[in-house]
Design a protein that fits this description.
Length: 459
């Protein structure tokens, strides 16, 4: 199974297949790791698996439905045709609960034991980030009782998505409070060897929490047709000032870490770049085309149509999918597109235009591109529209699963469903895992299809 292979890769890369947290049965004198030692080991591991997770099948299936990627073999070709089965989501569901969820809960417990509030704050922010990805993929899911998976006392009830959103916002606020209350003289403080994202810079972690909050406030705005909370978040909280604040994970080659898109495309060759995405770049003569798309054996940029099999279609380019390309979890570029959307929806066209221009320029500069003529036409836009904002964001956030959520929220870009199925359209959520129906049947929702809209996904 793919996740098993991923776990092997993680184990080889970090030498952490098993954490020893109970008595050593082979040595009565075995000295338990201190809480501080546990934190030093677990935080970099947790950050790595979260970054890797963002490029695993959960994200890649979403990118296929958003037509940034196309599936060329087996299950990936089936996903293109919306033929997902419950068994297809078992591994990715339990990768979260058995790995990410457990690691972050453990970090919080050890941080509380040692008085290390900075570690607890970072873990809570990461909890909120991952919980957001999970609920926006499945909707209702276990969180308040998720420990039941491991306690051996039963199976967890599901929290509704509106409650999960409140939990996310609370985690972010508690995380920020921890960061602000952290005392270098009390407990362990994270450094570059422990915090692989920000090197222990707590100010940047607080900015990241506020930008994550903005991402999910867009869903809240969509649900209630009210974006005033999102506007308040922009105006009253400190957000990213530039790409230097981006929440980015850099893969450590000395530990054999590898960008997952490189592993699954270059090594496993499961997917190609989608035709819709490639054609959009070509039509706009976008200077990022060679940075996003690798030319094929004939020297052409060729996208894969949904459900088709064309082994000559292009792979993602090295700039976004080399072995050591970092994963951007959330970025200044995404933030500025969100600001453009919020200002537009709140009737401030001038600010919307300015934020849109900064967003597009931010994306170009991240690849070292300066093209004044193209920028004058495609970035310096007067009276920008929602369609223009989301279409440009769709390009800039290549390989970020956020584009599927944007499509569900806004209907942009105007994708044509596989087989031109306009009756049901493009899937709007994942199916619950087969194992949940077999072991947690009393709690898992039974009336959900790929096309069932979730709480915030209103027409």
């Amino acid at each position: 199974m793919m996740i098993k292979k991923t776990l092997v890769l993680l184990a080889i890369g970090l030498g952490l297949m098993v954490y020893v947290t109970s008595c050593n049965v082979f040595d009565d004198d075995f000295e338990q790791p201190t809480p501080e030692e546990e934190l030093q080991d677990r935080m970099p591991y947790a950050q790595y698996i979260i970054a890797y997770w963002q490029g695993l099948d959960m994200a890649r299936y979403q990118l296929q439905w958003a037509q940034q990627l196309g599936g060329i073999r087996g299950i990936f070709n089936r996903i293109d045709t919306y033929a997902m089965e419950s068994g297809d989501t078992d591994d990715i569901w339990y990768f979260y609960y058995s790995n990410i969820y457990i690691e972050l809960k453990s970090i919080i417990a050890y941080a509380e034991e040692s008085g290390s509030r900075a570690f607890r704050g970072i873990a809570r922010i990461l909890q909120a980030y991952c919980l957001g990805m999970m609920t926006d993929t499945w909707g209702d899911l276990p969180f308040s009782q998720a420990n039941e998976y491991f306690a051996g006392t039963g199976f967890p009830a599901y929290d509704t998505q509106d409650i999960i959103y409140m939990e996310m916002f609370q985690l972010l606020e508690m995380g920020i409070a921890d960061l602000r209350g952290a005392d270098p003289a009390v407990g362990l403080f994270p450094g570059p060897d422990h915090d692989m994202i920000y090197g222990g810079d707590l100010d940047k972690w607080e900015k990241a929490a506020n930008v994550i909050r903005l991402r999910y406030m867009l869903r809240m705005g969509n649900q209630g047709d009210d974006y005033s909370m999102a506007l308040d978040n922009i105006q009253s909280r400190e957000l990213f000032g530039s790409a230097h604040d981006d929440m980015v994970y850099h893969f450590d080659q000395s530990l054999n870490q590898e960008n997952p898109h490189h592993y699954f495309d270059e090594n496993r060759r499961h997917t190609r770049v989608g035709a819709y995405f490639v054609n959009m770049l070509k039509e706009q003569n976008d200077p990022r085309l060679p940075y996003f798309v690798k030319d094929n054996i004939n020297g052409n940029y060729l996208g894969l149509e949904p459900g088709s099999i064309n082994f000559n279609a292009s792979f993602p380019a090295a700039a976004v999918a080399s072995k050591d390309t970092p994963i951007k979890l959330i970025s200044h570029t995404e933030q500025m597109f969100m600001e453009a959307e919020v200002y537009f929806r709140m009737g401030d066209q001038v600010q919307a235009d300015m934020a849109f221009e900064e967003a597009v320029i931010s994306s170009l500069r991240s690849f070292g591109i300066e093209d004044p003529e193209w920028e004058a036409e495609h970035a310096s836009v007067e009276n920008v529209t929602i369609e223009q904002i989301i279409n440009a964001k769709y390009i800039a956030l290549f390989l970020n699963p956020e584009v599927w959520s944007d499509y569900r929220r806004t209907g942009y870009p105007t994708l044509t469903p596989y087989g031109n199925d306009t009756l049901q359209g493009i899937p709007r959520r994942f199916l619950y895992p087969w194992r949940e129906f077999n072991t947690n049947s009393d709690n898992v929702p039974h009336d959900v299809t790929l096309y069932t809209r979730m709480w915030w996904d209103v027409e």
